[in-house]
Description:
Layout: H1 3-6, H2 11-14, E1 30-35, E2 38-45, E3 48-56, E4 59-61, E5 71-77, E6 85-89, E7 101-104, E8 107-114, E9 117-120, H3 125-134, E10 137-143, E11 149-155, H4 159-169
Antiparallel strand pairs: 1-2, 2-3, 3-5, 4-11, 5-6, 6-9, 7-8, 7-10, 8-9, 10-11
Helix pairs in contact: 3-4
Amino acid sequence: xxxxxxxxxxxGALVLAGLALGGEALANPTAIARFKDxxxxxxxxxxxxxxxxxxxxxxxxxxxxxxxxxxxxxxxWGSGRARSQxxxxxxxxxxxxxxxxxxxxxxxxxxxxxxNEAFAADDDDPAIVRALKRGSELxxxxxxxxxxxxxxxxxxxxxxxxxxxxxxxxx
Length: 171
């Protein structure tokens, strides 16, 4: 894992959950638009405008597990700190021993877990975003710290317009 990967911004925890980053409280996100199963939001973090497209999981497995809210994001920062960065946030800490994976169509990417969030390697971000825009479904598999294997499905209906709008809103 590169140092750049550790420097990725934790978008999921930043905005919808209203958590703190670096000890500073975050502003509530503002809804910008909705495109089918995806929504676009903006917020301000440490004085920087953050824009993101987001969608909730349409299916969570196993049904017996406590998943919490499960979101997939594509985020851009006005400062350029991150551009079209895909990530996932779940309601539990994921195992770092078994990396999560994301699949769209026939393409699969290995992610890395950091607490309750998962990110791709920086070099994979553009390919994942292209696939999100063109595909119909995203599947993410992960393992919790308690060693529960989980899988999530996300609809990609509206993803292309939402991702483009989020990026344009933070230029």
